[in-house]
Structures are given as structure tokens and as C-alpha cells.
Design brief:
Strands 1, 2, 3, 4 and 5 form a 5-stranded antiparallel sheet that branches. The termini are far apart. Helices cover 51% and strands 15% of the residues. It is of the alpha+beta class and 187 residues long.
Length: 187
């Protein structure tokens, strides 16, 4: 198999709360997935799979190439630009990570809307990522509410499917992205 035949379309694309990178090497598709809410800046999944389709001729050529290598070729694995993938992910993540690590989210004193609850759990996630040992207690003090009140708000965020107990859900990420895009347009 000629693994030199590379489809150069390899960009990060957002899929929910993940960034996904794809590249084709002959009949093989290599993809990397990186979760935006992960506590590290790199992919959490790397996948190599046979990806043939199209016309009968394309299928026959792809199967012939795959059979020639008797499965995933070691030469293909050596071609995967993993350092580049990680660097591109960090570059794509930088604007969101900058926000997540430095500026506190503007959590309202009272939570009424899904956006309010999304801001609350985003701030808790930010505080955790910066090493705050008791984020709920610190956030409760900052907002001037009791710990029990804040715990109820976090519970409500879970009910609204904005928080899974460890990280923001895709729904919360989408709400926050919409809010940030709206904020940028107004500036």
C-alpha cells in the first residue's frame, strides 16, 4: 500500500464539546478527538480505521490496498503527526482556555435562566482547573449565599443537564458559546 497518498484536508472541526481532526491515508482514516473540558491540552482519543466507499472501482482499490498491508500498516502509524495534532489543538483551544483559566465567569447573584446556571457551573469548573480546593464554598462566599443554596443551584444545573458532576455538558458549552458570541458582537 502506498501510504504516501495523503489527503491533506486535516483541520480541527468542532463536534459538540470536542474538537475533531481527520486525515485520510489511502483507504485509512485517522482521527483524533480532544474534549474542550478536559483538564489537559491534548487529544483523548486517536482512531485508525478502514474507510472505503464510493464507486465499485474505489471500493475495489481500497480493499486491495488494505489487503496488501494485512491490516493497519506500521508505516501509517509512523506518519501520524501527533506532535502537530497536539499543537493545533492547543492553538484552537487557546481563546477558550484563556477565558477559562483567567477571567471569572460573571455568575449572577440569583440563577433564573439556563444561561445563569451554565455560568455558575462554568465558574466552578474554572475554579477547579486553577487549583481551588473548595470552589463551592469560595463561590458561595463571593456571591453572598450559603453553601446549601449554592449546592441546590449545582443540583438544579445537573437537572437542567448543564453539569455532569465533573464537567460542563455539551448543552452548557453550546449555551456559553452562544453567549460569548453575542458578547463579542456587542463589543
Amino acid at each position: 500500500m502506498n501510504t504516501e497518498e495523503v489527503d491533506e484536508v486535516n483541520e480541527w472541526r468542532r463536534e459538540g464539546s470536542e474538537l475533531v481532526w481527520r486525515r485520510h491515508y489511502g483507504p485509512w482514516e485517522v482521527s483524533a478527538r480532544a474534549n474542550l473540558g478536559a483538564p489537559f491540552t491534548g487529544p483523548s482519543e486517536l482512531r485508525v480505521r478502514l474507510n472505503i466507499g464510493g464507486s465499485d472501482e474505489e471500493i475495489d482499490r481500497g480493499m486491495s490496498d488494505a489487503l496488501e498491508t494485512d491490516g493497519i500498516p506500521a508505516s501509517l502509524l509512523r506518519q501520524i503527526p501527533f506532535a502537530q495534532i497536539k499543537a493545533e489543538f492547543r492553538a484552537a483551544l487557546e481563546p477558550e482556555q484563556h477565558r477559562a483559566m483567567s477571567e471569572p465567569w460573571p455568575v449572577p447573584e440569583r440563577c433564573r435562566t439556563e444561561l445563569d446556571y451554565a455560568l455558575l457551573v462554568a465558574e466552578l469548573a474554572r475554579m477547579r482547573s486553577t487549583g481551588t480546593t473548595a470552589p463551592q464554598g469560595e463561590l458561595a462566599a463571593r456571591l453572598g449565599v450559603g453553601k446549601a443554596t449554592l449546592s441546590e443551584r449545582v443540583k438544579r444545573a445537573k437537572e437542567l443537564e448543564l453539569w455532569d458532576g465533573k464537567q460542563l455538558t455539551d448543552k452548557a458549552t453550546a449555551i456559553l458559546n452562544d453567549w460569548m458570541n453575542h458578547e463579542r458582537k456587542e463589543q
